[in-house]
Write a structure and sequence with these properties.
The chain is mainly alpha-helical. The protein is 63% helix and 5% strand. It contains 30 helices and seven strands. The chain has a seven-stranded parallel sheet with strand order 1-2-3-4-5-6-7. Helix 15 crosses helix 23. It is globular and about 85 Å long.
Length: 719
Amino acid sequence: CLGQLELQGLTERELYLIERRLRELIAQIWHTQDFRDERPTPVDEAKWGFAVVENSLWDAIPEFLRRLHNTQLEVTGKPLPEDAAPVSFTSWMGGDRDGNPNVTATVTQEVLLLGRWQATALYLRDVEQLVEELSMTACNDTVMQLTSNRREPYRGVLRALRDKLRLTLHALTEQINEHKAPPPGTLITSEDALWQPAYACYQSLIECGMVRIAEGKLLDFLRRIKCFGLHLVRLDIRQHSDRHTEALSALTRFLDLGDYQLWDEQQRQTFLLGELASKRPLIPVDWQPGAQVQEVLDTCAVVARQPREALGCYIISMARQASDVLAVELLLKASGLRTPLPVVPLFETLDDLNRSASVVDQLLSIPQYLDHLQGQLMVMIGYSDSSKDAGMLAASWAQYRAQEALVARCARSGIKLTLFHGRGGTIGRGGAPAHAALLSQPPGSLANGLRVTEQGEMIRNKLGLKSMAIKTLALYTSAILQANLKEPPTPKQEWRDVMESLSDSSCAYYRAYVRDNPDFVSYFREATPEQELAKLPLGSRPARRKSGGGIASLRAIPWIFAWTQNRLMLPAWLGAGQAFGDAMRAGNTDTLKEMNEHWPFFSTRLSMLEMVFAKADSGLSAYYDEKLVSAPLREIGEQLRRQLAADIQAVLELLGETELLQYQSWSRESILLRNIYTDPLNFLQAELLERNRRRQDDEIEQAIMVTIAGIAAGMRNTG
């Protein structure tokens, strides 16, 4: 409605109708319950993801590819092929079981089935529209052979496809609702069954001089097939490395082979490689493991039953050694997997990132594994946990160096490396504007494309509307093209030395607060709404991977989200400003300024740090302490705010600015405008938290949820 109001030439009646509709929509929102009463299930989350595809991406993809085609044709004279699929989508919703007991093998099976159902329903809608429109008579011999309808041959071909889609949708519905196996034969079970009749119609229209018709809705349909396939989105499976170790440990104990968990790395690799080469079954039919181990085996069995195009990859959280990858390969083989599925190590903590190239080197040194790869390897770089572990600056440098080393190692073996970036929305989780983030990657790291996560509210912000989705895809595409056509500079050794020093000192400062101060966890829980966040029915995952414990057991999302709420924004800056100050006092100011001017990696981090400082508010943080923090702990907050002020001055000096965002007027004005709304919410939230902690009340808890949602919306990239 707001978009329509900007159109020229509207009559008074049209304006009246638009404004009336606006008022109606606002009233609907006002009278709707703000929050769900119960946490969504993983299946609910998957359905939400499918809705994003249906409401936005389904139309955005063909429009984006049309623009890409036009640009390529204009610049190179070559069209984008009809079967080109430069963009594809994969989801973790219903597949990510790392620390989430709600994601089971049964859930994964259901989500895969629902994805097929949704894709079939959307294709059916498209084909029904094509049947209505493609009434032409002239056709080539291929189409004529596909139908007996000589008067309307295209309708004849597409009606047959429509009927198969209807049968497929009915069978899938019965399978979902009544768990009936689909009847064989008449259903669409391959991408070719969709593609071939539609592509035959497309080629016929071209040959018969009806290019304009062919390149309309029919071409959109063809491009959707190549992007979304039969499954709408491929599903990634993710599990923690410890769960695989537990499963193999239970198995080796049952087989009287010893305890896999107690073996050293060489013993593990010897056992795993031997079993991978063996032709005999690994898992005894009479073995009845515990529930956790059985769940791992059941998940592998579900994976093994799926067609290859239904799945993305199998991700191993907290991968630390080569055996973690080989363990998953063995479990999948033992479950009956015959078509290779990429098994992707996720290196998350600072130590794991630093050792990632060594782990990959071990894997690539195994001839059996090298043959299995077939020339391609995917490695995932973790942003959230590394930042929580070591602070933003140290984590960023570790991620950069890990990518450099991985690219170099794979190049030596002739392996095409795809780096999978596990970014979140916030600076503390690797977030940054897409274009700047990609151009700040190491040279060569985007040579084989990009795999990147869009998570949480960033899905809605970047992909939730067709126009925004097209813009996001265009930003990614232009950045990848630019990075490959004109690679970012290789950092000078002097820059690397300074960056190494910054990393070490920032990590030490960060950990001195977060790890070494025995009162820090208590302060964190009192000064932020961390306790209340755990009660919010926002997602299916628990706030912690394991019960109890301190910061280490807390997921990165609530860790960052909590500090955003009280406006201290601590994870995104702690340690970095102190390190810059030390470097400048050591005489490295000119080098730092040179790095900012000529090294995209460094300038992007500095720019993001400046933005975080602009969103932080020491006065509001102090008010939270006054209302919520016990007197003995308040000194921690005062120290942090003094440090924040000093860090801001250090960054301003380095940038040569007198105020934050001095040369980014749009960002500065945007933050100031939103503060008008968020600042009162912060005062309300602190007051409500104080009341609720004295005496819990359902209405107060509901009000707290409203403030949390409002502040999160105002801060935007909140986690």
